[in-house]
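Lab notebook, page 48
Experiment: co-folding of the full assembly
Goal: obtain a model of how the components sit together before planning crosslinking
Operator: M.T.
Materials (sequences as entered):
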Amino acid sequence: MPLFARAAAAATSGAEAKQARSRRRLRASGVVAAAAAAVLALSACGGGSAPKSSDGKVELRFSWWGGDKRAQLTQAAIAAFEAQNPGIKIKPEYGDWSGYWDKLATQVAANDAPDIIQMDEKYITEYSSRGALLDLSKYQIDTSKLDEAALNAGKGKKGLTGIAAGINAATILANPAVFKAAGVAIPDDKTWTWEDYARISAEVTAKSPKGTYGSAAYGTDEASLGVWLRQNGKSLYTGDGKLGFEPSDIAAWWAFLKDMSQNKAVPSASEVVEAEAAPLDQSGLATGKNGLAFWWSNQLPALEKASGGELQILRFPTKTGKASDTKLWYKASQFWSASSRTKHPEEVAKFINFLTNDVKAGEALLADRGVYPNSQVRDAISSKLTKADTKVVSFIDQIKNELGEAPAPPPKGAGAIQEIIKRYTSEVLFNRLSTEEAGKKAVDEMKSAIS
Amino acid sequence: MSAIGELSTMSRRKGPMSAEEKKANGRDNKAAYIFLLPWLLGLAVITIGPMLMSLYLSFTDYNLLQPPEWVGLDNFFRMFGDARLHNSLRVTFTYVLVGVPLQLAVALLIALVLDKGLRGLPFYRSVFYLPSLLGGSVAVAILWKQIFGTTGLVNQLLAMIGIQGPGWISDPSTSLGSIILLHVWTFGSPMIIFLAGLRQIPNMYYEAAEVDGATTLQKFWRITLPMLSPILFFNLVLQIIGSFQSFTQAFIVSGGNGGPSDSTMFFTLYLYQKGFGQFDMGYASAMAWVLLVIIGAFTAINFVASKYWVFYDD
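Observation: model returned without errors.
Model output:
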């Protein structure tokens, strides 16, 4: 603000003669400053629209979230596509998960949405039900080789608004180095129960140096809650877009976590809050501070790279100790979606078709977005996969016969659920609310978020 | 202030203007407006335009993806039942009512010390002003997060004397305090203004007081503070307005969610979450206008109250 600079200048020059008048002026300038500053409170930022084709080429904007590794792989796939289609240019836009959705919402509102959008199941209904996504079934995209469950996940009332980019499963990843240092054996994931999980985690903490814990805390996203609910005969959402559980169900889930927290099986409440904000490569699992942690299967290669050692994929524990009761499911890790306002739907479809069905795309993308849903591509690239990728693919294969039924798709407003879970998890861990109170309040809030 | 003073002498010239002078004046005005044009255009397009739009949106249900629908005062009525909004008001008021007086007290104290005529004053002034430039930045907020983390610098120092510190920013009972501290640390800009004000208090008052045998404390209460009150008032108004709108620090330190447990959920942060996270831009716009009214009310109260404590010696 120039006012400050003036004041500083006055301090050195010492304009004593004018002081009396300037003081009166100050009163007036205070009013002006107040008005100006208040006005700033309301000013928002506008967005510009991207220019179209500069050299006669069709230019498509393609946005995704993810880290450096994903960016490299995706750029390679784009290069392969552009080599095949010299008339089309793909302009990448990528960033972190946390900023991605704010940005996308703003872009869509400003009529400036990217042509091709990497979409998540939490938001696909939000966008598609409001007409922001293109019905891809109307364009030439071959879906015959796709896994049926994966294909269905992208279908909704507004048609096929997303094509699965990969298949995923909720897992617990183990860091063998932590277990080895503690002298504890990695549990057998085909027989372990939730009690085993809690006991072993506490044991690892007890036998590890200060600051290392047997397990990361769950309660920071809905995947672990989903598994817990399914094992208890409930679900996150029902088929008609309602909440599929009661306050007592989520309270029991928190009560179990609180017990673990009291036994130091999981980090302290403060450390849990800090871990939430850490990026993948600084997570407790990657830095060797946690023996076990909750991740999606496709995140293993990136985590191995960050940790510098091997990690092991485990099934979730069960109530019964039988792997057939794990009730895991195949999740579409991400979707390829397109803006309903794209000016070049044919070209967009061509690109999505390439990503979905072309072996060249598969060879570039490998298993970074999960196991390829196109069985033909999956087979064709199997020899090219890294050791870490192969581990993921074989895990997805192994659990094939243990899967529960496909969960209902998240309804409109589901994007807010994770934040609600996180917030009340810390209320519980900090002993600010009892698990019952937290359950009641959280369910109320969730209901109004998805209504 | 000297510039403002000069402007006022220009406009307050005695005697009627001659025709020639008037003409020259008109030319000057025209030139001024031409020079101001870029700023005026910016004000209209970037500030006034969006403001009017947000006023309209505050009476609508607008989810960003579909055209807004008129709902009248619905958004404002919904605020009465929104417990998280009430919490965000509590957090913001605590921040303003604790942070602003603390910051001004520190700023005045440092200004008084610097006014004693230290050697290398420009250097110290710059050093103390630096946090003001940096304090609102993302980088410093990230640094703050590191310093006050469970294994951060503060706790490492505490551990040396055998104290196990809490996770200052990750514990809901200390997180807001950490952000208030960050605010207090940026005392530089009010300090510079205080320093300027102190320089303008005529020495003769102090000399007279010394002759009468006044103590240092008496001189401060009876001379410095009253003479400085217009400056104090100016700082108070600016800081209150600025603090109500704080966003960056809480956004970065809490990782964007106002956590833990909404303990750093500022009004502006909640507004942002509502608008961009939950697709409730109509409600968010209404919140922005409520904030404007709150800031307006506080500023008005300030101006009314100033009659009773601000002393103008002319």
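Interpretation: Strands of chain B lie at 60-61, 69-70.
Next step: discuss with group before ordering constructs.
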